Amino acid sequence: MKYRILLLLLLVTSCSKHPSLPTSFTEVNETPHIFPDYVDVMVPPNIAPLNFLVDDVEDVVAEIKSQASRVTFGGKKNKMQIDEKEWHELLAEAKGKSLSVRVYTKKDGKWLAYKPFSIDVAEEDIDPYVSFRVLPPTFVGYDELSIRQRNLTSFEETTIYNNRQISHGLEGQCINCHSYQNYGTSNMMFHTRMQNPGTMIVSDGELIFVNLKTDGMISAAAYNSWHPHLPIIAFSTDHTMQSFHTRDITKVEVMESASDLVIYDVKKNRVQVVLNDSTEWELFPSWSPDGKYLYYCSAHYEYHQGYEDTDELLKNYKQLQYNLYRLSFDADSMAFGEPELIYDARSKNRSAVQPRVSQDGRYVLFAEGPNGLFHIWHTSAEIEILDLQTGELLDTKAMNSSLPESYPSFSSNDRWIMFESRRDDGNYTRTYFAYFDKQGKVHKPFMMPAEDPEYFRLLLRSWSRPELMKEPVRITPRQFYEKILTEPLKVSN
Amino acid sequence: MGTSVRKVLKNKRLLWLLAYVIFFVALAWYFLYMKNADTMYFLQDRGWWNSTSLFFKDCISVPGGLLAWAGSFLTQIFYYPALGCLLLILLWLLTFGLAKYSFKVPSEWSFLLFIPLAALLCSIIQLGYWVYLLKDVDYVFYHSLGLFAALLLSLPFWRYLPVKVEIQGGGALAWIPLVAALFYYPLGIYAMLAAVLSAIQTSICLSKRKSNTFSAFFLPVFLLVLTLGLVPLLETSGTTQMRPDQPWTYGFHKFELDTLRDYSLEIPFYVAILAPVFFPFIRLIKVKKLWQSQGIMFLVALAMLLCLSKRDFKDYNFHAELRMQRAVEECRWNDVLREAALAKGPVTREMIMFRDIALINRGELCTKRYIYNNESILPETVSDSIHIRIADQAADLIYYNYGETIFGIRRAMERCMHYGYSYYTMRMLAQCALVNGEKDNVKKYLRILSRTTFQKKWAMEMKRFVDDENLFRTDNRFRMPFKLYNEGSELVGVDDKYVELTILNKWMYSLTNDPEAQEVALGCAMIMRNSKCFWSQVQQYYNINQGKSFPTHVQEAMLYEVYALNFQGVNLSFVKFDERVLERYKSFISKVKQYQSQGMDDKQIGSLLRSEFCDTYMWDYYVLREIQTN
Fold this sequence. Notes:
heterodimer, A: mainly beta, Immunoglobulin-like, Neuraminidase, B: 3 strands
C-alpha cells in the first residue's frame, strides 16, 4: 500500500506544473543558451508565455520571479512550458519592471544552475492579433498556402482562408497581400491568383470580390495599403519575374519589369492612376497614419534593348535599387502632389522597400537590401528606421542579424516593431518583435512565442508577411470561399 | 502429426483453402518483393514519418488522419523491402481471417475474400512513373489498414452483449451512425465503409430473427443513408483543409495531374472498397459439388494472376532508374555503371545523366562516356499515362551532383510543396545546404531527420560534417559536388524544367583551372556538340594539363571536328594522338565512305558500324544526329 502512495506522490510531483527546484546543483556563471532566445528581451505585458527549450539536456526547471511573487515551471524533458494564467499574472505584476528567470538544467543526472537573466516587461501592450501567410519556402508552387491569424496573448490560431478550400490537384490558388485598414478587420483585403483570381475586399463588414485590372493598368493590383480612414486602397500594379542564382545563397532574385501606382475607391468601385512613369518603377505604397501622404519606393530604370526585355534585366538586376518617396494627398480633390525623395538608398548602393510610417508620423520603417525588392532572400537585408525630423537613420543593430530581415511594421501604439526574419536557419521565415522606446531606441527582438517551444524548429513552413491587428477577422473561411466562387466585379477608370 | 492437422488434411474444403492462401501469399511475394523490391524501397524513401507531435497533429487534422499516420509509420519499414513485404502480406492475411470470421464465409468460397486484397496489391505494383507524383506518403499501407479497420469495426459484436435480443438489435442499429461519427476523422472513408458493412450485417441478422421488413431492412438503410450523407458533412463543417465536395471521398486516391486523370489506376480502390459489401452474401451461394466451387475459385485465381501480371509496371528503364538513383545517392559508382552497361535498348535521359555523374566521380567522363549507350527515348514513348520529365524525378539529385545546389534546393522545395516532404527530399535539402555552407539550415533538417526511424543514423553521420569542416572537405562523397559548386560560374537564370540542358549549357561555357572540373566542362561541350565551346575547352585542357595527353573521346572528337566536320582554324600538329584512336578514326571514315558509295543511308551505315564503333564519339555523332537532351 505504502508503495502505491509513494508511486502516486511521485506521479503527482513529476506531473506538477510547479516542480521543486533542485537542492543540489553546480553554479554556472553564464546565462543559459535557450531557444528561442528570450534572454534580456523586452516584452509586451499582454504577450503569451515565452516557452523555451534547452538543447542536449534531460530536464529543465526555471524559477521566474517578479517583485511580488516567485513561481517555478517545468515541462516535458528539455522544454520549459509556462502556465498561461500564471504567466499573465506574473506579467501584470512586472508591468513596467522586470522578471528574473533562473534556469536549472539536468544533464547526465547532475543539475546546473545558470546565471539569472531578465525579461523586461514594457508598459505598452502589443496589438493582440497577427495574421500571416503560411507556406513552405518555395519559389513557384503554392499548392499548400493559407492565411492564418494568431492571438498573441495566447496560442490560439485560426485560419482566415486556406487555398485547399478551392484548389484542385496541382493547380493551386495563390493567395497574398492581406492587409487591414488601421489595424481593424472591418475593412480588409487579400488577393487570389490563378484559380478564381480577383481581390477579396471586406468593406464595413461586407464582402466584395473584384477584378482590379483595367485596360490602362500593367497588371491586376498587387502590393497595397488602406487609407487610414477613407475607403481607398493604394496599389502598385506590376509585372514580376524571378530568376535563380547558381552559387549565391541568396538563391533567387525577384524583379519587377515595370510597375505603377493606382488607388482604388472601394465605395465607387473606381481605379485612379497615381504614377505611371515607365522609367520609374513604383512599388509598396503605404499611407501615413494621418492619411496626408502616400509613401512608396521607386527604382529608376531605362531600357536599352527594348521595353521589358527580360534578358537585359537579368544582366542588370543589381542596378534595380529602390529609393523611398512620398506624395502629398488632398482627400477633398483626391489629388496627389509631386514625388518627394525622402531616402536615397541608391546613393549608398542599397535598395529600400516596404516603407511603414509611425503613428506620430516621425519615423519611417523599411527593409533595406543590396538590390531589388524581395529582401527576405537577401542575406544582407536589414530593417532600418528613418527619423523624418533629422533625416538620419536610427541605430537598428540590436534588431538585425547576419541573415535576412524584411517586412517591418509598427504596432498601433508605435512601441512595437514587428518584422520577419530568417535568422534561425537561413531559410524559414519567422516573426519577430522588438520594443521601440519613446527615445527612438530599438531593443533586442524576440521570436513569436509558441506553445511547444520546438514548434518553429520543426515547422517546415514559413510564416511570412505578418500584419498586426487589434481584433480577429470575423468573416469565416467558408464565407470567403463562397464569395470567391462568384464572378468578380469589374472596375471602372 | 497432431489431431488438428489431420482434421485439416481430411477436410478437402480446408485443404483447397490452404492451397489458395498459399497461392495468394506466393503471388503477393512475387509481385511485391521479387518484381518490385526497388519500387517498394523507393516508395518508403519518398514517404515521411517522424515521431514529433507536430507531424501527428498535421496528420489527424484531416479525415483518415490516423490511417495516414499509421500508414506512413508502416510504409517506412520498406526501408528493408523484404520486411515491409512480409508485414503487408501479414496484414492482408489478418484481413482475410477477419473477413472470413466476421461474415462466416464457407471455406470453399473463402478465396473470394482475397479479391479486394489482390486489388490493393495491384494498386501498388501498377504505379509506374506515378511513384514520383504521389502526394500520399502513406500510400502503401493506408488502404490496407483502412480495409482492416473497417472490417474490424463492422464485427457484429452486439450479438454477444449480455442483454435482451431487442436491445441487441437497437445497439446494432445505433452502431451504424455511431461507428461513422466516432471514426470518421481517424479512418476517413473507411469509417463510412464500416457503417455500410455494419448496416448489412444488422439487416441480415435482424432478418434472421424474423423482425419485420421495416426494422430489418428499411431502418438500417434509412440510418445508413442518413449517416453517409450527414456524418462527413457535419464533421468537416468548420475545416478549411478541403473543398466542400471532398468530405465524402477524402482519402480516396485520385490519379490526377493538372488536366490529366487516369481513372484506370483508381479501379483497384473501387474494387477494394466495394467488394467487401458483397462479403456477407457469399455464404448464400450454394453449389452441389465441391469441384464446382473450386472450379470457380480456380478461374478467380487465374483471373487474379492475369490481372496482376497485366497491371504490373514492367518497364525496364523505370526499374533501372530507381536502382541507379539509389546508387547515385549512396555514391556506389560501380553499381551505377553496371546498371548503365546492362541497359539494352534506348535508355532514358535520367539514366544517361546518372551514368555521367558516376563517370565524373571516377574521372572517366571523357574516356569512357561513349562506351555506354547514349541512345535515348523521349518521355512520350514511355508506356504510361504520364510523360514524366527529369525535373519531376530526380532534378535535385542531379543538380546536387553537378554542384548546382541552389537549383537542387529549388527543385527539392518545389517537390515538397507538390508532393509533401520525404526522407529523400530532406536528405537532398540537407546535403545541398551543407555544400552551400548554410549550416544552420542543415542542422534544422538533421534535427528533424533524427526524429525518424531509419534516417536517424544518416542524420547523425551528417552532423559530423557540419561540426567538422575538414572532415566535410576531405570526404569523398562531397568531393565532386563541392568542387563543382566552387568551380562553377555564378549566373542568374531559370531552368524551365530543362534540367540536363541547363547543366550542359552552363558547364560548356565554364572556364576553370581545376583539372577535374574542367574535364566536366569539356565533356559537356562534347555532349552539346558546340564546336566553339569544345575548342575553347580543349585549349583550356591543354593549358592546365601541360604534357598530359588528351582523353580518348576528346582525341576522337578533335579528329572528327577537323576532318569530318571541317572545323577551320585549328592546328592539330601539337596533339599527340594515340595510335589506336587514329587507326579507328581512319577505319571509321573509310567505312562510312565505302558504304556511302554503295548508296546506303546514314541509318543503315550506323547500324552496320555499330558493333565495331559504337564505343566512339564519331559513331555517336554520326548516328545519333539529334542532341537528345531533356
